[in-house]
Amino acid sequence: MIRPALHRPSVRGRARADAGPLLLVAAVVAVVTLLAGAAPPLLRATADDAVRDAARTAGRDGDVLAHARWEYDDAPDGGRIRAPRLAEDVDDFRERATEALDPGLRAVLRPPVAVVTSPTLKVTEGTAPRTFRLAYLVDGRGPHSQTRVTWVAGSPPAPSVPPERESLTVPYGGPPWPVQIGLSEVDAAELGVRPGDRIPLVDEFRRAKDVQVSGVFRAEDSGDPTWRLAPWLLRPVAGADGVGTTRLGGLLSPGSLPDARLAFDQDELDRAVRFSPEPGALDSGTAEAVTGTLVTLKATSGASSVQDTSLKWETQLDLVLREVQTRVNAASAQASVLLAAVLTGAVLVLLLAADLLARRRTQPLAAARQRGTGLPDLAAELLVESAAVALVAAGVGLALARLVAPGVSWWWAVPVALAAAAAGPGFGTLHAARATRDRRAPANRAARRWLAQTRQLRGAAVEVAVLVAAAAALVALHQRGILPAPAGGAAGPWSTSDGEAALPSSAPALGAVAGALALLRLLPAGTRAALRWALRSRRPLAAFGAARAAATASHALPPLAMVAAAALAAFALTLGATADRGLADGAWRTVGADARLDANPAAGVDMRALAGRVAASPGVRQAVAAQVVDGARVTTESALVTPRLVVVDAAAFRRLLATTPLPDAPDLARLGPAGPGGVPALVRSGDGSLRPGMRLRLPRDGDAEAVPLTAVGTAPAVGGTGDVVVVDAAALTAAGVPVVPNTVWVTGPGTARAVAAGTDGVDTVLRAGVLHERRGAPLTAGLLRLAWTSAAVLLALGLLGLALGAAEGAPERWQTLSRLRTLGLRLREARWVAAGELLPPVAVAAIGGPLLGVLLAYLTAGPLALRVVVGAEGDPPVAVPWWGIAPLAAAFLAAVAVVVPVEAAVRRRRRLGEVLRAGAG
Amino acid sequence: MTADLVSVRGVHRRFGSGPASVHALRDVSFDVAAGTMVALVGRSGSGKTTLLNVVGGLDRPDEGTVVVDGTEVTALDDDGLSDLRRSRVAYVFQTFGLIPVMTAAENVGVPLRLARVPTVERERRVELLLDLVGLADHAAQRPDELSGGQQQRVAVARALAASPRLLIADEPTGQLDAETGLSVMALLRGVVESEGVTVLVSTHDPVMMELADRVLRMHDGQVSC
Questions:
Q1: Do B100 and A551 make contact, defined as CB atoms within 8 angstroms?
Q2: Of the candidates A720, A743, A483, the residue with the CA atom closest to the CA atom of residue A601
Q3: Per-residue b or e along A809-826, where b marks 16 or more CB atoms closer than 10 Å to that residue's CB
Q4: Looking at beta carbons, which residues of chain A come within 8 Å of B101?
Q5: What are the TM regions of this chain, as residue ranges (chain A) (predicted)?
Q6: A326-375 pLDDT, tens per residue?
Q7: ipTM of this predicted complex?
Q8: Geometric angle at alpha carbon B101, from B95 and B104, rounded to 5°
Q9: How many domains does chain A have?
C-alpha cells in the first residue's frame, strides 16, 4: 500500500494563508461542540431534579404502604383479650415491613411511620356534619417516643384499666369499651370539649363509642411529615368524608391503643406502615430500578382479601416515577430534536465554509497538482489540516462544556467534528481535480446539454434522497412518536442515540433540509421571473440586480444553509413558544382564574362575603364563590365515582369563564332548579364513566336520602381535573344540601392587589405564581432554555451562512459590478445591485425559512409529545411566536445591509482597472 | 487638421512602495487625434494596460494629466469618472464581460439603461448596433449560446451603445482565433470609419497594427511613436 506523501511546508503555508476561514471553522465547531457536549449532562441533571421533585411533591401517592391484618384476639373461652403490648406489636410490624423491603428500595425511602386508624365515626352533636377518627402514629423512635406534642391541658391518653388488669378478657357484646384520646387545640375548640369530656360518637351502624378526652395537645412541629398521614389530628379537614362534612381526629397513645382495639371489631382498626420516599436518594438513573422493584413488590404482595397477617403492599410511587420518567424521556427526545437541528445547521455551514476555503485555494491546489502532487497526497495534506482544526476546536468546546455542565457528552459532538474534518479535504480535492483535469467542455452543443442534464440528474438524485429520508422520518415520528417504546422501559435521558430513535428525532431537521431544497428549486424560476420584470422596467439597477441574482440562483449550498438554519431556528422558537403556551394554558386550567382563594377550614372565613369584597376591589372583573369537593362520592346506575364536585352559581361561573381564555361552557346555561329527574348537573370524565344523559345520585350524610342528579351537559375542566360534576349552588341548596363555599375564583387585572389585601384565613393561589413555578420546573426550564439557545445558535449559523455565501460569490459579483462600473455605474449604485443579487436567497431564508419552520412545528408538535413535559392533558396548540420570528427574518435582511457595504469597502481598495485585464500589460 | 481627443502629459504611475515598487509608467506623453485608431503595442509588462486604465479613468496617475474630449480626467472625482465612462469613454474587454443571463440585445442595451434612455429609443439603437456588428439574427441569444467572436462583437456593440467619443480595447482579440480576431479588428476599423469613434487599442497582433492609423510602442513604461 502506498502511503500518501505529506509536504509539510505546503500544509503550514496553506494554513497560514487561510488562517481566517480556518479560525471561523474552529469557532463554529467549538461553539456547537460546547452546546452538544453540555446539553446532555445538563439535561441529565435536570432529569435528576425532576425525579426528586416528583417524589417530593407526590404527597401520599409517593408513599409505600404496607398493610397487615391484626392477629385475632379471641380468648379460648370466649370474649376478647386485651393486648397491653399492642404498641410493641405495631413497632414489630413496622420493623417486619422494613426488613421485607429490597435493600435498593429501602435506600431511597425514609424511615417508616406506623399508623393505626379507626373507621370513620360520626359526631352526633352539632348541626354541621362532622366525622371523627382515632389514630396512633409511631415512627422509628419506637412506641414510647411520642414527644412530638406538648400537652397544654390534661394528660396523654392512659389505659382504661389499671396495670394489674391490663390483660383482662372482655366479653363479646359488652358495653362500648372506653378509650382515651388526646385532641389538638383546634379540634378541641371545634368540638367544644375539655379534658375529661366524652365525645358523642357513633359508628356506621349507629353503635355508640365511649371516647374520652384525656388532654389537649399542641404539635411541637406541625410541619413534621408524620402528621401528613393524619392531618385531621391537628385541625379539621373539610370534605374528607363527603360534601359538607368536616373530619376531626383523636390521638391515641401506646397506653390507650389496646383499648382502641377493644373499642372496635376485630378488623376495624387499620394498621399500616408508611414509607415516604427520600427525594435526595433518587435520581433518573435509580428511578428505573426502583420502579421495577416496586412493581415486583406489588405483584408479590398478598391479596387484601387473604385473611392472614402477611404484608399487603400498596403504592403509587412506581406510577409517579414512571410518569416522571416518561417526562424525562420526552424532554430528552425533544432535546435530541433540537440538538439534531443545531447539528444540521452547523454541518451545512461547515460544508459551506469548506467550499469557500476550497474555492479560495483552487489556484494553489491546481498549481500543486501541476507540480506533480497526487490527489491522494493533496487529500491527505488537507485532512491533516482540517482534522487538526476540528480536533482542537472540538476539544476546546468539550472542555468549555465541562466547565459549565456537570459532565460532558461527546456523542453529539462527533458529527460536527467529522463534518469539519472531512468537508475541507473533500471539497479541496474536488476543486483541485476539476481545475486540473484535461477534459474540456465539449464544443458540441448537444454534448454540453447532455453534460448539464447529467449534472442536474445527479443533483436531483441527492434531493430526492433527502426528500425520501425526510418523509420516512416524519412518518416514523407520526407512527411511533418521539417517546421510547414502552417495552424499552424508561431508558433515561439521551437514549435516542440508538439508531431506532434517531430517525424520528431527526425528522424536523431533515424536513427543514428537504423543505429548503424544495424552496430553492423555486428560486431560479423566481429570479428569472424577476429578471423578466426588471428588464421591462425602466430601473437599471433592478435589472442588473435581478440579472446577478438569476446568474447565481443555481448555487444551492449558501441558500440551503441559510434557509435550513432559519427554518430550524423558527422551529425551535415555535417549539419553545408552544411549550410555554401549554404551561400558560395549564396554569389557567389549574387555577381556573387569575387567582383562586382556598378556605382554610380552621379560619372559618365566609367565602361568599369574601367574594363580594374582592369583587368590589378595583381592577377585579369577576369574583365567584364555590364549594369544591375533591373525591366527592357520586353513584351512577352501576358504579361509584369520585369526581371533583363543584357547587357554584352557574350564571356567575359562566361570566367568570368569559373573562378567561378558558373554553366557554355553554351548557352552564342548562343548570338551574331541580326538575323531575333531579338536580341538573354537568359532567366531564376522562374515562367515560360520567356522560351527559346519565342519572346520578349524590349521597348525603346520615340517613338523609341521596340527592338525584341528571347529567344535562358537559362540564368545563375545572382545575384541570379529568372527572368533574358541576351543580348550581341554588339548586343544591333547594334540594336540602347545605352549600358552604370553600373557594373563590377571581379574574381581572387588579386581582393580585385585591387578593393581597384582606384575604386572611385563605390560601391564595395566583395563576402567575403557578405559571412561574411551572416554568421553573427542572425539565421544563431546561427544555425552554435549550429551545431558546438552539434558536439563537441557529440564527447565528444562518447569518454566518449568509456571510460565507456572500464571500463565496463576492469575487464574481464584484468583477461583474466592476465591469458595470466601467460602463458608468456609480459605486453607490453598485452597492444596490449587490444587494439586489443577495436579496432573493436571503428573502427566501427570511420569509420562507420561518414559514417552513412553523409548518414543521405544526407537522411534528403532536408526535413530539410536548404535553408530557408541560403536564397538559392534550397537545398544546401550536403557538407561533411572531415576536421572535419577525426579528429572525429582520436579522437576515439587516445582515444584507451590513454585508454589502463591508464588501464594497473591501473591494474599493482594489483598482477598477484590474478588471480590464489582470496581470498583463 | 483633426483636433486631439486624448492628451496625455507627463504621466507617472508606480505600484507598491520602497525598493519593491514597480514604475509602470514613466513620464508618458502623447496625443490621439479624434476619429483615429491608435494601436498600443509592447511586450507583456510594458505598461499598456496601465496606460489604458489611466486614460480611461479606471486608474489614477501619480503624476501628470490626462485630458479626454476636453475634460481633465485626472481631476475628476468618482462620480465624475462614472459620468465620463457613461457618456464618452467605453471599453472592450479581452474576456468580453457580458452578463450571462441577458440576451445579446439586453447586453448591448446595458449602457443605454444606465443612461436611462427611453425603451423605444433603446431598442431601436440596440437593433442598429447589432446590425452594425452583424448579429441582428442573434439578438435573443445568451452569451453562452454565442461563439467567442460573436460575444466580442456583442461587447463592441455594447461599447458603442452610448455613442462614446473614445473606445478603449485591451487585447480584444486575445481570446479569439486568428480568423475571428481579424473580423473583430475589421469591425473596430469599421466603427472608426462609420461612427467617427476614436479607438485606443492594445494589441500584439501585427494585423491590428496595420489597420491602425498610428502605432504607439511601449517599452518599460515609456512610449515611443
A1: yes
A2: A743
A3: bbeebbbbbbbbbbbbbb
A4: 528, 531, 547, 550-551
A5: 337-358, 378-404, 410-436, 457-477, 509-535, 556-577, 786-811, 832-860, 880-902
A6: 888 888 888 889 999 999 999 999 999 999 988 888 888 888 888 878 88
A7: 0.90
A8: 65
A9: 3
Condensed to tens digits (0 to 9), the pLDDT of residues A831-868 reads 999 999 999 999 999 999 999 999 999 999 888 888 88
One-letter-per-residue 3-state SS of A12-57: HHHHHHCHHHHHHHHHHHHHHHHHHHHHHHHHHHHHHHHHHHHHHH
Grid coordinates representing A502? Answer: 434517531
Predicted pLDDT at A668: 86
A567, A611: one domain = no
Answer yes or no: do A210 and A71 share one domain. Answer: yes
Q: Cell 482565433 identifies what position?
A: B177
Is the same domain home to A201 and A101? yes
Residue in B56, B101, B170 closest to A917 by CB: B170
SS3 A714: strand
Among the partner-chain residues A824, A916, A917, the one whose CB lies closest to the CB of B86 is A824
- Look at residue A29 in the predicted model and tell me its pLDDT: 92
**Chain A residue with Cα closest to B55:** A913
Q: In angstroms, rounded to a whole number, what is the distance separating the alpha carbons of residues A161 and A189?
A: 28
Together in a domain, A267 and A350: no
Contacting A with CB below 8 Å, chain B residues are: 42, 44-53, 56, 58-59, 78-79, 82-83, 85-87, 90-91, 93-95, 97, 99-102, 106, 110-111, 113-116, 119, 158, 162, 170-171, 174, 202
List CB contacts (< 8 A) between A920 and chain B: 44-45, 48-49, 170-171
> Into how many domains does chain B fold?
1
How would you write B94-146 as a 3-class SS string? CCCCCCCCCCHHHHHCHHHHHCCCCHHHHHHHHHHHHHHCCCHHHCCCCHHHC
Strand, coil or helix: B156: helix
A536, closest residue in chain B (CA to CA)? B119
How many Cα atoms sit within 13 Å of B116 on the Cβ side? Answer: 4
Could you say which of A535, A819, A913 has the minimum Cβ distance to residue B59? Answer: A913
Domain final residue pick, A297, A315, A333: A315
Whether A272 shows a pLDDT value over 80: the answer reads yes
Q: In the prediction, which pLDDT does A515 show?
A: 94
pLDDT band of residue A602 (cuts 50, 70, 90) is low
| Interchain proximity B170–A916, CB inside 8 Å | yes
CA-to-CA distance for A136 and A778, rounded, in angstroms? 37
Place of cell 366531564: A684
Q: Are A825 and A544 in contact (CB under 8 A)?
A: yes
What distance in Å separates the CA atoms of residue A209 and residue A123, rounded to the nearest whole number? 10
CB B198 within 8 A of CB B36: yes
pTM, two decimal places: 0.82
Q: How far is CA A594 from CA A657, A717, A763, in A?
A: 11, 16, 14
Please say whether the beta carbons of A755 and A591 come within 8 A: no
